[in-house]
Amino acid sequence: MSTPVLEIGKLNKTFLTSKGAVHALHQIDLTIKEGEFITVIGPSGCGKSTLLKIVAGLDNRFDGDVKLSGKQVTGPGIDKGFVFQEPRLFPWLTVEKNIAADLSLRNPQVRQKVDELIELVRLTGFEKSYPRELSGGMAQRVAIARALLRNPKVLLLDEPFGALDAFTRAHMQEVLLDIWQKNRTTMIFVTHDIDEAVFLANRIVILKPRPGAIRAVVPVDLPFPRKKASTSFQQLRYTVLNEFEKIEELELIDSSGI
Ligand code: ADP
Ligand code: MG
């Protein structure tokens, strides 16, 4: 957990729109260590998705440094896995073919890796099922397995459990932590759910909007498995909530013109 895998320095992003410039990210500095689980939380529009897309190489029009294993990110690649809010599976392909994507299951190495991933995301027995036969949580587990196929250096997840009901969501959080503990893949997980952010993270990055900037970085030193009802968990929750209230106060001051 000591080597930096991702180094973001003085990152700025402005969207030019017909209505003018939108300063989406302002002076983001963040270094993430190998194997770390980072959650990014903040109100809607504070730049969470923009930040993730830039790290993924899906948007290369920005100012500043974004280095993965010391190399500037210039485009998408197999060293970065991405999971969106919706699973985005191919409806005409089975679970195993969705995971293998463009690789052939006839290749023994691919076959072995896909089988390992199916076991890891707890979909044994569903290899030959089609996406329409899966629940939302199962489909999202396929999406996670697909993103892990090429052992990415970092897995980027943009509100991946946002469309799931509370029980499925809690189960998915357990599954993801299990995957992380077995694989030690570096994770950057965007959410707007405080419980989720505290439950999963080694560090929580709190963003504030207009322009999107880092408001605070909160380390979470609670041991795993975490209990959401424990006092220490609730204390951390309050710490994060407190930062949000400060953001709201700043917004009120802004809008009142003080
Ligand atoms: P979040 O994911 O935190 O809700 P986003 O990263 O989607 O926020 O958006 C951050 C800001 O950038 C918002 O003000 C949004 O309107 C703006 N934005 C995002 N994408 C674009 C785009 N393609 N063109 C113009 N503005 C955009
Ligand atoms: Mg978003």
Keywords:
258 residues, alpha/beta, 36% helix, 27% strand, binds adenosine-5'-diphosphate, ABC_transporter-like_ATP-bd, ABC transporter ATP-binding protein, ABC_transporter-like_CS, P-loop_NTPase
What features would you describe in this structure?
The structure is a single chain. By secondary structure, the protein is an alpha/beta fold. The protein has a single domain (4-79, 152-256), classed as P-loop containing nucleotide triphosphate hydrolases (Rossmann fold), CATH 3.40.50.300. 36% of the residues lie in helices and 27% in strands. The chain has a 6-stranded mixed sheet, with helices on both faces. Helix 3 crosses helix 4 and helix 6 packs across helix 7. The N and C termini lie far apart (44 Å). The site of magnesium ion (MG) has 2 residues, from helix 1. Magnesium ion (MG) is lined by residues 48-49.
